[in-house]
Amino acid sequence: MTVNVSSPLHWKESRHFSLNPKDPVFYQNPYASYKEMHKRQGPVYWQEYGMWCLTGFDEVNQCLRDKRFARLPPAGFERKPYPTHLKDFAETERFSLLALEPPEHTRLRRLVNRAFVSRQVESMESEITRLAHTCIDRFEASGEAELLSQYATPIPVTVIARLLGIPESSTDNLLAWSHSMVMVYTMTQSHQDELNANNASIAFIKFLKEQIESRRSAPDDKLLSQLINLQSEPDGPSDAEIISVVILLLNAGHEATVHQIGNAIASIILQPPDNPLWWQSKEEADRVVAECLRYDAPLHLFTRYAQEDVQLDTDVKITAGTEIALLLGAANHCPMSFDSASSFDVSRTDANHVSLGAGTHFCVGAPLAKLELRIALSVLFERLPSMQLAEEPRYRDSFHFHGLESLQVKWS
Ligand code: HEM
User: Over the chain, what is the mean pLDDT?
Assistant: First the structure.
């Protein structure tokens, strides 16, 4: 990824710009446009989305933690309901952590945290390592591979299925349902995409109802059984809540991780390590992971609703109920917070990022995502040190889920 390419962003007024999110020049390299946005001080207005955007690291980081902003509009400013052809999709979101705010969010998040304890995540280390080796065993002899489908995709979905205690034979269905459902979050989906997302939701809900019934009669020590176990407590989760939580864990749990693994591999191959010891210590490998998360994150845009009138800066005041965009990818490349922000530098002293969010909705899966990344990268680069790109990596036509279409590599 180079930032010296031109940006298709056009300034209309001092802070208003036009930029088609489906322009390939943009989604292949959004960082060139972020560089343009950073030239203006304070929030900038994206005409195609009709929203003020925060692009600075401090501004985005503070807004994620600011109680005057939430994922839901304040009372009296209800969100536009989903159309009826998305009825079942809406059902999966009803109790999603991402569709709740305190106090409802606090209760459910606490229940999820209790089931999703770090001890359980850490105990996955050797299993994830074995899984990474098994994937490489399948393609090593051929001298080439398409790493997105052969490596980055199977690891996260298998890991989350094992954590939940869902049969691994169902991972193909889980992937297909998840791909269809996340289209609704791209804000550029077609009517057919929405119908597909709703059908996927129907199948996913049916599957999970069957899984809940089967765990109820034959519990194990996995996450789904633990959530069912919590139902015996006075504020325990309902079946509908468990279904929403599990769907969010499955969708969030692999879609972002797949693309972060792909983006990270490409970043590292394009900027080969100057330190051959990267993969020999956990601490150093964790620094590589942190820089990969900053340098080329998979999720670039989240929104928040103002809960009251807010003065965003001296010139920009927004009223209660207004939705604003937080550009996480831009914040990670903010020239005010990072020296040589567009350079991949594992030894940076200003290491930081907002790729996993912050505040109330900070990523529940952050420890798992970082563990998967550390193992997936270490095992791959240790086993195939001569790996090179076989073709230039191309990003998918999806600005919100910034990830590669394919990652073709070869080695000798
Ligand atoms: C590299 C991979 C990942 C990235 C970049 C990522 C990023 C994020 C971000 C930015 C948020 C906050 C959204 C907001 O504030 O509006 C979030 C929330 C969340 N993530 Fe992740 N995530 C990753 C992996 C995972 C994994 C592996 C899981 C679970 C297995 C997971 C589960 C969740 C959940 C449940 C939430 C909602 C938390 C809440 O609303 O309280 N994520 N993630």
Answer: 93
Quick check: 238 and 212 in contact, CB under 8 A? no
Question: What residues are in contact with ligand 1 under a 6 Å CB criterion?
Answer: 64, 71, 97-98, 109, 160, 248-249, 252-253, 256-257, 260, 297-299, 302, 355-357, 361, 363-365, 368-369
C-alpha of 55 from chain center: 18
Domain boundaries, the chain: 10-410
**Looking at residue 234, what DSSP letter applies?**
T
Q: In this structure, which amino acid lies at residue 394?
A: R
Residue type, 333: H
Examine the pLDDT at 200 and tell me if it is beyond 80: yes
Q: Which residue is listed with tokens 């590669």?
A: 404
Among residues 402, 358, 361, the alpha carbon closest in space to that of 60 is found at 358
CA dist 224 and 208 (Å) reads 10
* 277 CA → ligand 1 middle, Å: 30
Tokens of 366: 């952050």
Residues of the chain with pLDDT > 90: what percent? 85
Task: Tell me which DSSP letter residue 410 carries.
Answer: E
Query: Which sign, positive or negative, has the C-alpha torsion 137, 139, 142, 147?
Result: negative
Tell if the pTM clears 0.90, that is, is over it.
Answer: yes
Element containing residue 209 per DSSP (H, E): helix 191-217
CA–CA distance, 87 with 94 (Å, rounded to integer): 11
CA–CA distance, 227 with 236 (Å, rounded to integer) = 8
CATH annotation of 10-410: 1.10.630.10
